[in-house]
Amino acid sequence: MNDGTGSEQGDRSRRAVLLGAAGATAALAGCSTGFVGSTADQPDEPTDTPDADGGPEPTAGENGRYTGAYRATVDSVAVIRAYGPDGRAGQGSGFVYDGHIVTNEHVVAGATEFEVGFADQDWHAGEVVGEDVYSDLAAIEVGTLPDYATDLSFVEREPPIGTEVLAVGAPFGLGQSVSAGIVSGVDRSLSAANEFVIPDAIQTDAAANPGNSGGPLVDLDANVVGVVNSGGGDNIAFGISAALAQRILPALIGTGDYTHPFMGVGLRPVAPVLAEGNDLESVRGAYVASVRSGGPSAGTLRGSSGSTVVNNVEVPTGGDVIVRLDDTPIRTLNDLSIYLALEASPGDELAVGIVRDGEERTARLTLGERPDP
């Protein structure tokens, strides 16, 4: 992992997906693609939907509750067509927030022209005003939003596992579609550019397919718990959390970009074999495998200096183990990623609690700005 917010897994560029082969769309839920005018391009017309007028209050019984949440959401959900300069078209979903359309960066990446469709065949030309590959979020502006397409609200706190949710969007271009499930996991990490990760993600068993990306994952009060990011029609899909989206979207809408904090270290999770190889008392923290020359942590944190074999696995040794950032305990690598993403900014000075040579100590460093992809 790079910098406390990346991974040592293989590089996987989202930008290759929108205008790439259709066979690559299973992993990212918003990459339904095809040549303009082909049959793959036809189903994405928004279909008529009843005038919900904000939707009825959810009633007793599962069907009524789902219907109420759907009707309170669907008029603010859009189909997005993205056209590339080579004649290919991709499509995804989006929803209204702060007078703009929120979607995924991988839905708009590489495209130059955009059409945004709401209910009743109501199409508008759109323009991307901000995008961030590191969070897979983007904001689109249209000239005039329909009166019925009002802002959706994000949840105020992370939903507990088991919360019932709906994924509203346009799978395979079929607008005004909904699937139901629960929040099946929280605090997940998703792959991003340059071996970084998107932390704090929401996991759900609500079905998400190509075309769902960028659409809202909402609770039964019609509040957004996440921005659908990936899924392949299996019993597991993911969304960018409400907390991360609310931190990044105002900057994308206001200035066009967002600057992420940067530690300048390569990190690994502390697995049992790594803990044994480094004589650690407990399996906790984030292991510093490398320190970037000239980066914010250079001269402050220490990377690996050797290796050893534990249970036939070669593990690095000699690096610092980060166990605290300011007053926040770091139990896992994901804890560190979430802290940097939600609590820290470039220029912040952090007190970093580390274990070095069997002793816990505190180092201080000033966060930099994450390099462009």
Automatic annotation (TrEMBL):
Protein's UniProt keywords contain Protease: yes
One Pfam entry name: Trypsin_2
Bias-annotated ranges (Acidic residues): 42-51
Residue span of region Disordered: 33-66
Sequence ranges assigned to domain PDZ in this UniProt record: 261-367
GO molecular function, one term: serine-type endopeptidase activity
Any one GO BP annotation for this protein: proteolysis
Keywords: Hydrolase, Protease
Protein name: Serine protease
Organism in which the protein naturally occurs: Haloglomus irregulare
